[in-house]
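@channel sequence for tomorrow's demo:
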Amino acid sequence: MKKQPISPWFPWLDDYYYKIINQFKKKKNYKAYIFCALNDLGISSLIYALTKWIFCINKQKIYSCSICTNCILLQKNIHPDLYIIKNNTKENFTNVDYIRNLIDKIYQTSYKDVSKIIWFANFKQLNLFSKNVLLKTLEEPPKNTFFFLQCNNKDEILPTIYSRCQFWNINSPNEKIGLLWLKENFKNYKILKIKSIQSALRICNYIPINALQLLNNNIWKNRSIFYNILLSSFKKNIMNLLSILDNNNILFYLDWIYFILLDVIKLHLKIDFKFFYNLDQISIIYELFNIIFLKKIILMIKKIFFYKKILIKINKINHKLVIINLLLSLEEIYQS
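structure tokens (generated this afternoon):
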């Protein structure tokens, strides 16, 4: 079992929490739940809160009391009836024997006869044999035992397992909620311009947690400089980008080039500025608009996707060589 820290709460999880808790209150709940989000939207916090409510022996309507024995054990990460399955470097929790042993344990009497919860914190890490053992258990689950399956993609779940669970897709909150959360959690919120913070949120696909990490990263401070160098490189020599792109932040930079080019496409198509990603870089977008035709931008984006995929999928490839090939391809498109 991997210990999980007490989780913070995020306002965009409220609706999911209320709906699932009301299922339990009406005794219309499922034995197994799948929680899916493409990126970090705080699913762990949602599962932790649900677990706490289920275990709580002094429930306050839809909330846990936080003071009963079960709540305290959870807060100390030592509750004997919570099993959090997640790989680490010391133990291989995907091993089928481990899963079998776990299944044997959950058939035993639970602590204080409340419930048992099996939390698969990264379902993708389970191998096929382990998934099949779990499937057999889900077909006839033990009494008062609940399964929480956490994943990034629905395709990670076997169809046979999926059919025995209730599926919850956790979506990014709207921009208003995201900005309110950043206002409360980003220390420099009043220093940065609101358009810069909006841009970070949009670049991070409206995921506030990721936007906060990006805003707190030194790389964000150099973003405007990067875009000016990008513009200058298109005008003079695109190979000037090589020294900047050839580092550990390459994927960040490729995403930024993609987003700024996407905004240039929107400008070509006369789409309203309110739908742009880089709200704080309108002048750069206009300059790129004036020097790159629409068809060329589309071809450039395709090349960026192609070489980014190579960088992600092939671990031992020479990054510098890939970047050189990308820049030569962009130069060829630009000059054509």
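heads up for whoever presents: The first strand starts at residue 32 and ends at 36.
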